[in-house]
Each structure stands twice: as structure tokens, then as C-alpha cells.
Amino acid sequence: MTIHSFPPESSSADGLNHTPHDGGESFTDNADDPAPEAGWTDGVTEVDDVHLDGTAETFVSSGWPAFPQPDTARRMANAVRVLAMDAIEKAKSGHPGMPMGMADIAVALWSAHLKHSPADPTWFDRDRFVLSNGHGSMLLYALLHLSGYDLSIDDIQNFRQLHSKTPGHPEVGVTPGVETTTGPLGQGLANAVGMALAEKLLAGEFNRPGHTIVDHFTWVFAGDGCLMEGISHEACALAGVHRLSKLVVLYDDNGISIDGNVQGWYRDDVPARFQSYGWNVIDAVDGHDAWAVGEAIAQARDWGSNGRELGDGERRFAPTIIICKTVIGKGSPNRAGTAKAHGEALGADEIAATRRELGWSEPPFVIPADLYAAWDATQVGAERHARWQDAFAAYAAAYPEEAAELERRMRGVLPADWEDIMDNLVMDTVMEAQTVATRKASQLALNYLGPALPELIGGSADLTGSNLTAWKGVENLRPSPDSASSDLNGGRHINYGVREFGMAALMNGLALHGGFIPYGGTFLVFSDYARNALRVAALSKLRVIHVFTHDSIGLGEDGPTHQPVETAASLRLIPNMDVWRPADSVETAIAWQAAIENEEKPTCLLLSRQNLPFIEREVVDVDLIRRGAYAVHAPRGAKAVIIATGSEVSLALAAAAQLAEEKIRVRVVSMPSTTTFDQQDVAYKRRLLPDDLPRIAVEAGVTDFWWKYRPEAVVGIDRFGESAPASVLNQHFGMTADNVADTVRQVLGL
Which fold has domain 418-612? Predict the structure, then answer.
């Protein structure tokens, strides 16, 4: 095992008297490492690691189990291996290589270090475990089954089958104990950064002297694929900035991916990479020695809670990556160490050979009773949970308001005065009747919502001044200027940097952890960078809010690279995703209300850069607007219906006024949320869009989406934009009241 110091430019030495070798500073305690003359200098003092034989006693006294003896640890790992390969063989589908390769690492973490309670998988102060390399799902399912979660051996045998609790990749809400949906590589790691950030922020907000009620780690299993994905860089760099010391990544360094040995396309210096982020690095750990891995984990735990001693009394808080050298498909005589072990069932003959190699005589899906007992975490988990409940009761007695607030936020329940907050916001918005860009209307809404909702945490991908995601008086999140402190300033606006994908995945992690409703901003066109995290949020039913500004050609001179003519339509096609494109300040406020109240859906708010006129309404019916579409102009004797959204509603109203001068009456329907309107009852849809009236749809984007509403014509843009002032572009592309009116006339044959 090698422990790397921080790079010289980011810190002083780590307290060791040594010289660099192999490109970085390190010390080693492995007997197999180079002789002193190859890497050591005279005068080196070997620091004492936290060895398992020492920590076991500490753990026992604190309610932690003793680490299993080597032979038991080996057999526990083999139980994971055989469950994985047998379930995959039965399904004739899956990825046996990773579960077999990481089984010993799993023993090290789950048997002695992971704080969890199988009887209550949602216990608030549990450690979070994230399987970022989610294709190895059978590893997690085996661990959940063996340690006592509500996941039976029948569920294991039902792996990858319809409606099973063991889908091909882990899905939150489907399997007890699964913290996040993983499979798209790198995203689980980014989710974990969000979880660790949530833990740190809640600890800073709610812990009090003598009452540490928020205190848990976030553990990640990750592989080569996770680190190859660019999102890993985005997320891990930010984790280093915020010194998320209770984030620990165990990297499965097996050198193999689907296409073979990764040396042909992946040669990153991973220790140097993570050192540059400001992480602790423990390198060259034998991933098949559970005790060695456990020792590294114990070290990471100590650093996570107490900081890392750097020498001369200095201390540093940082996340930790433990680099574990493993063999993919460990135990398989003919496939171990090869790409053949990665993503296909081993086959009956190889499974039989693997059983002989492992010394495993039990038939498929049979685990000896002593191994079930060794893995069982129900009792110790219940004891830890009970101690925390006692601690929380003492906290509640000393700080009743804080305890009640924390409980409310972890349940995801809005404040008791939420309706009053929204009523006041809508009333003030109506009274002010401002002509503003909807991005500005969004900020005005946030000026109400931010102070009223302490769980609301915002941010932007380096576009705060354009997205207008910061409300009046909000602090930007910053680490303490003291490098020896783990503190954050408690700011509720995150500067994510130019990291759209990382931002979206971190927001998912914040939501999954609980205690926060996250939102983040960027330009609408850059939602494409974040698209897969948006999709996973929808799949996972997460309450996250995306503020996407500069929503059309109306942003003007930036040109077609920044003009998202196709993007709104594509977002509306994502199942379980709400999309709002409001037309004025009132619709914007109500869109925010809908987003915050939407507990099981992410929401996209598509907002304008350009000013939009306030819509004069005789009556503001919030309930109708909340239905996603409503008649903003409904004269008697209407001959047609114009359906419009966002900035084009004002065009539709202007066209209706122009036609009215010709005695041609048209209804104007504002449809700020097609996804919401589509969920309404048939009767409401027919009242709003009568079958006997021809329809004309208007949006500054692709026309294909709108044909679902059976219009006679669509005024839109089916090509990429241009660089010019917005007014010029609107004329050029026909996004004018005159063109809308002409289209109505053509439809009516006038």
C-alpha cells in the first residue's frame, strides 16, 4: 500500500522525510515494494497506519463488529462470487467480472466499516453506499441479501427478470438498500459527491456542541469506466475544492474493460490526477486482501473524521481515493483477468471449474449458515440505529426547533406556511405587473422562495449573472479560508464552474441524500451536456429543478450554437419530466410552485433572455395555470385557437388583437407546460381545445413536436438559427404577430 502526499504546490510535506519516486511523493509499507535503495532515503520514518487488529477493539467498544479472520473473510468473499456468477448464469445475462473481482473489497467495507441498518434502509444517519460501476449490480444484490436486507434468495434467482427487485442495473426505489440508480458510468460517483456535500452542509447547519447527529460517510465503488467518463473529472475536482473528507472512493483498478486491456486507450496517472484535485490517495492496495483493504479504509475513516496530519502540526481535510489492484473475474480459472469475464455469463463448465478453484462445494444459491451469520448486519445495525435515536432524542430535548426542522426537511415536507408563501408571491407578482425577461421573473420569485425555504439550494454552471439563479442576500458556497478546516460557510448558492453534467448529477445526489431541494442553472442549449443526468433524475423520480435560460433565438447575436431550437421539444419527450416555458412573471412564479411541490419529478424551467410583456388577465386563476394550459384570451364566437408557449404567447395575443380589428375572433391558449397539460382529463382538454375549432400552434422551435395537438398549421423554426439581433432574427424566421395572423387567415381560408 502506498500513501501519496499532496502535491508540493497545494500543501507542505506530509510529515515524512522522503524523496519523490515514480512521479510523486509516497511511503510504502508493503513487503513487495522496492527495496529501500530503490525508493527510500536514509532517515525515513515509517508512520503507523491504523491496523485492523487495533481498530477492531475500538469498533467493538463502539458497537462495530470485529473484522473477520482471514479464512472467514475469504469464504465471505467467495459467497459473493458464487451468488453473482450463479444469478447471472440463471439469467443468461449480466456482468460477473466486477462482482468477482471486488468481492474482497466488499468484505472489507461491509463487514466492519459501513454504518447501516438492514432493518431500516432509510435511517437518516446511515452511511451512503454507491455502486458507481452499476453493471456489477449482482455484487450489491449479494451484499444486501447476505447482510440481512429485505432481498430474498428468490429475488437473487430472479435477477434481471420482469418486475423483479434485482434489475440489471441498480434502481433506487426498487431494491431496499439501493441509494441511487447507476449504470451510466461516472454518474454514481458524481451522485456521491452530492451526497457527501449534503452531509457536510447539514452537519454544519444542525450539529451542536455535544450533539453530533449528522455524521456519516459516503462510500463509492468505481471502476475504470467511471474514471474515463468526463463527469468524474467534473465532480471529483469540485469535491476536492469543498474538502469533502467523508467521501471515500474505492477504485477497482483491474485494467480491463469490454474492449480488452485498457492500456490501449487509458493510461491516466490516477494518483497524480487525484492529488491535483486535492484528494488523499492510497495507492497499490491488494484488492484481494480484505485485511489490507480494511486497513486502508480505517485510515480513510480517520482522515475523514479528524483530518490528515501533514507535519508541523498541520492538518488537511480532503476526500480519499483507495486504489485497489484487482483481477477481474477473480476465481474463474479461464476467464479471470480477461475481457471475457466482464459482460457475459461464465457458462456451466467454467462455473464448475470456478467452484473447484474456490473450494466451494455448495449447490447454486445455497450459502452455509455460518457465512450468513458472518455477513448478517441486522443486530449491529439495529444497535447503531438505536444509539443514534437516543442521541437524537437528547438533541431534540436540548434543541427542539432544530430537531423538528431537520425531521421536516428529511421527510421532504414543505413548511406549514407554504400556501401563504405562494399566495403572497403570486399576489405581489400580479400587482407589480412587470415587463421583464422570465429569467428575471425567476430571480424575483427566488427572492421570496429562498429565504422561506431553507432546504432550497441553488447554483449555476458559471452563468450566475445570466441565469439569475442567486436570490438577494444569498451567499455563495465557499470552503473555509483556513486550509486545516473542513468547514463550509453554509452558503446556499453553488458555483459549479463550467460543469453542466457534473452539476446535474450532483443535484441528483443532493436530492437523493435528503434535506435539500436543489436547483441549478445554465443555458438551455447546454442541457445537452447534462442530458443523461436529467434522464436518470426522471427515472429516479427526483425533485430537482433545472433553470434553463436563453431559451430561443431571442438571445440573438450568440448565434446558432447557442440557440436551442430543438431542445425544448426533446426535453418534453423524457418520461416523468415536467417542462415549463412560462410567458410572463405570473406563469414563472406558478412554474416555480409546481416544481417545488413536485416530489417525484424533476422540472425544467425554460426562461427567456429577452423581456416579455406582462399578460393582462381579468382573473388570475392559479389552478387553471397549474393545469399546464389555459385560455388567456377567450372571446365569444371564436373561429380558431392559437396555442402558444413562452415568449410566443405575446405574439399570439398581438395577432389576436390584429385579427379582432377584422372581426375575426380567435381564442389564445397559453400552454406553459405541455407535460402537465397532457396529464389533464379529457373533458378539460376538449373544453380548452374544442374539436370544432381549427388550431394553430406557435413556438420559436421545431414544429414536429406540436403536431400531436392536431393543429392545421404550426409557426416555428425547422432549421438552425443565425447570429443577429433578436429583433432581426424574429423577422427573418417569421416569429412575428403579422405572420401568426397571416397563418390564421390561411387556415380559415380568408
Answer: Rossmann fold (3.40.50)
